[in-house]
Amino acid sequence: MNTTLIRQRRYRRRERGVAAVEFALVAPMFFMLLIGIMEMGRVLFYWNSAAEATRFGARVAVVCDVNASQSSTNPVVKDMQRILPVLQPSNVTVAYSPSGCDATSCVSVTVSVANINVNTLVPFVPFSVVLPSFSTTLPRESLSSQGGTNPTCS
């Protein structure tokens, strides 16, 4: 038998399992990177949802009664939670200007969200991301259908 052929067979025997070892070394890093990319996409989804919830909350607050946002069942927060379920009433601020105005004298409404935590699921490195504050200001509208006052939204 040819000596080079014998050497090749011995070399192949020594190479058995090398691919499995290389995969075992590279796979954890690859999957951590893959999961990290997916989690970053989820954080950006929450970021976009927080901005959209703020815009939607401002649109609701513009047409609702001024006193509705002060109630325990705030319709603005309730509608915002449909877009961003992790949102708590303590994260939302609804401010009418000028301060202390009523349904006929309010000029604008500002809805803000702050301190929203998003917990990530990256393996071996779990961390929490605090989203930045978002706010939207819109001019106040009067829906003259209720005798000059806006409806009490629920």
Estimate the helix proportion, in percent. 40-55%
Shape: rod-shaped
Main β sheet profile: 3 strands, antiparallel
Query: What is the rounded Rg?
Result: 29 Å
SS summary, helix count: 3
Low-pLDDT residue spans: none
Number of strands: 5
Lateral strand order in the biggest sheet: 1-2-5
Question: What is the residue-mean pLDDT, rounded to a whole number?
Answer: 81
Q: N-to-C SSE series?
A: HHHEEEEE
Number of domains: 1
Instruction: Please state roughly what percent of the residues sit in beta strands, choosing from under 5%, 5-15%, 15-25%, 25-35%, 35-45% or over 45%.
Output: 15-25%
Category from helices, strands and their pairing: alpha+beta
How far is the first residue's CA from the last residue's CA? Answer: 91 Å
What keywords describe this structure?
44% helix; alpha+beta; two-stranded antiparallel ribbon; 3 helices; rod-shaped; single chain; three-stranded antiparallel beta sheet; 16% strand; 154 residues
